[in-house]
Design brief:
globular; binds pyridoxal-5'-phosphate; two-stranded parallel ribbon; about 375 residues; Aspartate Aminotransferase, domain 2
């Protein structure tokens, strides 16, 4: 006898990227920042008084909420702090999409979205991206025709790294009848010359939610801290009704504040990742691996025909050499690998192993 709800019994659950025990593994599979968090994080941890953990944390993480609002020139009432960006996604799904109603996503994109839709027992509409990884021009019409209550878009897109411009998102939010959630998990790595900033739109659009995380840009994936920005009528129901009672623990609140006290530390890691991204991209190109231009901390590359191994076997081969990268078994992605930008040494090791792999083929021909 199963006590699970039918939709839960039918679903498979989220498949996370491998988290190896061996600290020497070169981990280019889950898009973490290869550089350490600010030293202020260590100081904040050391100065935490365990006695303070006796009481519950500030329920809405108010000091951090205000600090985040200042960062984006918004009001605290535009922000909800969440237990990782993933909690923000879950809150939006459970607050804005009724069971049986339609949730829409661009395909391919973050594999957690369908899982959350299944948990909510929502109907899922996947709208294929164009070959340039951008949504089709009639995206809003398609969403409206499907009766979608909410759509999630990753920008810069995962797994391609393609950046959609602000005007397109603004147009979409104007045309679409539901909530537009723009998942900016990787936005910190966008080249500042692109001048991309969606946050001001929060003041004008009543259906726009923007997700941010400390996991990538602030090197704090282990902490589980993120936030959503949006018009207050979108934030309020999540903050006062659907959120867990004390969703942000006291340690996360203190460390989030410490991270934001050291913006130059974080932004110098973003610049290093961008430099590494350019070098890794040209290294891959030189080996004949075409790379989609990326504004994120990862690259999507198609495994070329002259490689002796198809993408899935190349991923296994790299793993055997101590290098983890991500392969997705889906029609559009099965011939590609997603590679997180690592440190220069890690990137170089990957390039060396790929070169050996290609060379091994030549030797055996
Ligand atoms: C596209 C996208 N959105 C959101 C997240 C959530 O990140 P976190 O829950 O660590 O903040 C991730 C994590 O990998 C992601 O890839």
């Amino acid at each position: 006898m199963s006590y699970e709800r039918d939709n839960i019994r039918r679903m498979a659950g989220y498949q996370w990227g491998e988290q190896p025990d061996d600290p020497d593994t070169i981990k280019l599979n889950t898009n973490e920042n290869p550089y350490p968090p600010s030293p202020l994080i260590g100081q904040a941890l050391a100065s935490l008084d365990p006695a303070a953990l006796r009481v519950y944390p500030q329920p809405t993480a108010e000091p951090l909420r205000r600090r985040v609002a200042d960062l984006h020139d918004l009001e605290a009432h535009n922000i909800i702090i969440t237990n990782g960006g993933d909690e923000g996604l879950r809150l939006a799904m459970t607050t804005f999409v009724d069971p049986g109603q339609t949730f829409a996503m661009a395909e391919p994109s973050y594999s957690l979205y369908p899982v959350l839709a299944q948990i909510q027992d929502a109907r899922l509409t996947k709208i294929p991206l164009q070959p340039d990884w951008l949504p089709p021009v009639d995206f809003a019409e398609t969403l409206n025709a499907a009766g979608a209550r909410m759509v999630c878009l990753v920008n810069p897109h995962a797994p391609s790294g393609t950046l959609m411009d602000v005007e397109r998102i603004e147009h979409l939010a104007h045309e679409f009848n539901g909530v537009v959630l723009v998942d900016e998990a990787y936005v910190d790595f966008v080249d500042p010359h692109r001048g991309y900033n969606l946050m001001p739109l929060v003041r004008d659009l009543d259906n726009l939610l923007i997700l941010r995380t400390f996991s990538k840009g602030y090197s704090l994936a282990g902490l589980r801290l993120g936030y959503l920005a949006g018009a207050n009528p979108l934030i309020e129901p999540m903050l006062w009704k659907t959120r867990d009672s004390y969703n942000i623990n006291a340690i996360s609140q203190a460390l989030g504040l410490a991270a934001l006290e050291d913006p130059s530390w974080a932004s110098s890691s973003w610049a290093r990742v961008r430099e590494g991204r350019a070098r890794l991209s040209s290294g891959l190109n030189q080996l004949g691996f075409p790379v989609t231009p990326s504004e994120a901390n990862f690259l999507l590359t198609k495994v070329p025909n002259h490689c002796p191994l198809p993408a899935n076997r190349l991923q296994q081969h790299l793993k055997a050499q101590g290098i983890l990268v991500r392969h997705f078994d889906s029609p559009v992605l099965s011939d590609k690998l997603r590679i997180t930008v690592g440190t220069d040494e890690q990137n170089q090791r990957l390039i060396d192993v790929l070169r050996e792999t290609l060379g091994a083929e030549k030797d055996t021909q």
